Amino acid sequence: MAQVYLNNAATSWPKAPGVAEAVAGAVTELPGAANRGGLEDFDVFAAVRQQLARVMGISDYNRIALGSNATWGLNAAIFGLDLKPGDRVLTTTAEHNSVLRPLFALSQSLGVQVEYLPTDATGRVSPQAWEVALERLRPRLCVVTHASNVSGAANDAAALTALSHARGAKLLLDMSQTLGWLDCSLEAWGVDMAAFTGHKYLLGPQGTGGLYLRPGLELSPHLVGGTGIHSDLDTMPAQMPGHLEAGTNNEPGFHGLLAALRWAADNPVAEDREATLARLERLESGLAALGAAVVSPGRPCTPVLSFTLGSFAPDLIGATLRDSYDILVRTGLHCAPKIFSSLGINPKSGSVRVSLSRFNSDDDITALLDALAEIVAAGPEWL
Fold first, then answer.
1. What pLDDT sits at residue 237?
2. Which residue, of 245, 266, 287, is where some domain finishes?
3. Is residue 300 reached through a cis peptide bond, with omega within 30 degrees of 0 on the bond before it?
4. CA distances (Å), 233 to each of 135, 150, 219, 225, 228, in order?
5. 250 and 324 share one domain
6. For each of the chain's 383 residues, which pLDDT tens digit applies?
7. β-pair type (64-67, 170-174)
8. Together in a domain, 293 and 190
């Protein structure tokens, strides 16, 4: 039986065609990072920014600072905004630990007040509840995930941004789960900051990601060091993107991401999106027939589905699928521990999460449902 990979919300696999070759080429050839010694006839980082600007719906690609992942971008935004003691931050219970932990650190070190707005039962943020919380809290910063990594439910980023701006707050959007899957128009939406990663639905390698910063908004660098330009300055260069980019970046990884972005430009995700979501809906129906409790987010969503299965412990389901059927899913809290109460799931054991990519097939869904049917028939004591 061929291995079935269903953990794309963590890291996509397989990668886009050409990614591995691009990474290998960057490692075996002379380094070409611009202005840092080596070849300078091609700036891979500028090329990546240009491709990302198209995907993000922005006009100035130099407003994108590149770093190691979305966590890097979220930290750069959260710590770089120079929040002060007593400032308020509005976020949600759907957030990943890459948001929750920086905000907790600021609450402990500076006395920043953080409020976590519960989601609805799908994992989605209600704009009406968001507006009420904004009016009551009057935060300086709002942080929200574009789509839950647990339920797949996508939020209305344009509406949440407009509501935040109307109350004088800036909005940071976590696009870890959506960039490369959902159509994005950051400039039209008015988003102030948006963090992203390259290794999920952009289909690139790990160690790539970054932060978009709207024109006119500046951050204090959270990380300082060499930039290859203006080396005589005691401070980081004022202009973007170098203002936020300290140290040597992951050139091989960004060659891989560039290959993925170019492939996606020639093979738009829209060509496969509907078929992938149809597979997700088939999976949801099949799980329900087996007696599973499924979180059904409705659209818009990413191809992610969380479920529990009666008295079967999620971690044991995952281990059995891996060891006995060579099917890889994700179990537990998925680094988003606050969302489970809203979803009606035990916040100690979490869920089984299945996350598809455009490369999964109907046979993959059949294999998973058949395996789960055998597990159910055998009973919990078999696991």
1. 74
2. 266
3. yes
4. 43, 44, 18, 11, 11
5. no
6. 689 999 999 999 999 999 999 999 999 988 765 445 444 578 999 999 999 999 999 999 999 999 999 999 999 999 999 999 999 999 999 999 999 999 999 999 999 999 999 999 999 999 999 999 999 999 999 999 999 999 999 999 999 999 999 999 999 999 999 999 999 999 999 999 999 999 999 999 999 999 999 999 999 888 777 667 777 676 667 787 877 887 788 999 999 999 999 999 999 999 999 999 999 999 999 999 999 999 999 999 999 999 999 999 999 999 999 999 999 999 999 999 999 999 999 999 999 999 999 999 999 999 999 999 999 998 876 65
7. unpaired
8. no
Evaluate whether 241 touches 29 at the Cβ level (below 8 Å).
no
**CATH assignment of the domain containing 186:** 3.40.640.10
Judge if 345 and 233 occupy the same domain.
no
Range(s) of the domain holding residue 159: 19-266
Here the CATH number for the domain that contains residue 355 is 3.90.1150.10
User: Based on the domain organization, do 261 and 273 belong to the same domain?
Assistant: no
Q: Answer yes or no: do 353 and 218 share one domain.
A: no
Domain count, the chain: 2
* Structure tokens that stand for 41 in this block: 């006839």
Let me know whether 277 and 252 are in one domain.
Answer: no
Same domain, 180 and 215: yes
219 and 312 housed in the same domain: no
Cβ contact 246:225 at 8 Å: yes
User: Among 218, 240, 266, which residue terminates a domain?
Assistant: 266
